[in-house]
Amino acid sequence: MAFEGLTERLTSVFNKLRGKGRLTETDVREAMREIRLALLEADVSYKVVKDFVNKVTDRAIGQDVMESLTPAQMVVKIVNEELTSLMGGEAVPINMSQKPPTIVMMVGLQGAGKTTNAAKLAAYLRSKTGRNPLLVACDVYRPAAIKQLEVVGEQLRVPVFQMGQANPVDIARQSIQYAAQHGNDIVLLDTAGRLHVDEALMNELKSIKAAVQPNEIMLVVDAMIGQDAVNAAVAFDQALDVTGVMLTKLDGDARGGAALSIRATTGKPIKFCGVGEKLDAIEVFHPDRMSSRILGMGDVLTLIENAQERLDEKKAEEMAQKIRSSKFTLQDFYDQLQETKKMGSIYDILQRMPGMAGKIDESMIDQKAIGRTEAMILSMTPAERENPSLLNASRKRRIARGSGTTLQDLNKLLKQFELMQSMTRKMTRGRIPRALKSILGGGDPTSMPDMSSMLTGAGRRGAPGMGAHSAGRQRKNMKRKKKR
Fold it and tell me: Residues 180, 319: one domain?
């Protein structure tokens, strides 16, 4: 995930500061030196790093910080504010025309993901703003570019306008007329790219711009090319005066320096980011939320928004009622798993949780664990899902054979489900503080024996969470407490 290495380095720096009761100027400058190295390693441009560190240092050695009761927290607060400011301060929407259609011209180098992300943006604008988008195939040079746009457009049920190998300027003009006649109030032009910035490319893009006068020139930048992304952004901005940037493949760049450099270098806002290969994997770029993620504080707001958009509110209320009445079954757990999958991968969800960023990496998560869990539950009869106590040795062997898993896998699932039931019973009895403390393993979120450990194969591959042995110890401890 983006900024993974940077998050880990910054967390280490802040932990050192928290270990000191009072901060001296030397402590602050030493921390800033480590932050400078961390940013440079994340592929942030040298000039941006220098300006950023100077600003943070000037504020951090001020009297308010040095005399604060929690100076380390004040330093974190300053870094958070400056990071947010570096990335633009606040989210910036697309420039919409008062008189439809709004014209969005997608530009960028070949391979940045213009075609796919033009379709993603069209679907996003349709679902979020109620617009009726039209995709336009202006890339007549790349083999199968038109076909690719038609395929993704069909998948998203977004209409595509194309005129084959005609002049891209004529295609753009004709598409505006077509949109006006067919009620399309936003037009997205998928223009051609090159492997590098050249005069022919820029002249063609300038001609399209002059012909249709777009409301938005969206530069699509591949975050994984690092400083080359910044260089491309500068070149396109000088030629076309871009109005916004979309960062793609942000989910695959562990350094993420482009996001921190582009805004400071070009002065143009990052408006959207691509966070996955699926056609709904696009997000508005919120600088404050991204800063929070970089500093390991999570991104709960985006997590909540995703849940509100993708989860069934009625099912969620029914599930909450069952939990309150201590009637949560394996069938309910299976249904909850299907809902949770709509929000993305378990790794992405955990990364947005406060305190989790930097503590896990994707290799620690067993990607096949969800499939095994589903297979085991589906291999049970309805009665067994409602009442796991029915599962004797012969039934367990049948389930393990039917699901292609082992008895060890099944026993681990049952033990962790039993523990989860026990925790929810505690919380519904009003013993929330003690229950939460137990769930969090004494305050460490990485030892949480919740759904994530049941899905990520924690016991098998050493992921954060609780294996079968730890679950057994927890259960024994709870029995001892009850006896007391």
Answer: no
